Amino acid sequence: xxxxxxxxxxxxxxxxxxxxxxxxxxxxxxxxxxxxxxxxxxxxxxxxxxxxxxxxxxxxxxxxxxxxxxxxxxxxxxxxxxxxxxxxxxxxxxxxxxx
Length: 99
Prior knowledge:
Layout: H1 24-30, H2 36-46, H3 70-77
Protein name: 1-aminocyclopropane-1-carboxylate synthase-like protein 1
InterPro entries: PyrdxlP-dep_Trfase_small (IPR015422)
């Protein structure tokens, strides 16, 4: 099974390393620094839109999903030469180290 943790778990598969074992940058990344999208998503979770139950609720425009090309992806991923799936092919890049 593929590990999607981004290497934050310890070698034994348990909890993330203790803060003292990491550099300041590593501790910030492992601690899950809250960004603008995180704050917006938290607000959405607290008050999600529902046409009938909560028409004044918040719509989530911070999560991207492209359903228009699913048929193309399904066709390609069903071919026999696709023998592995790498997480980076399906996810956004980790941009925390860019700044």
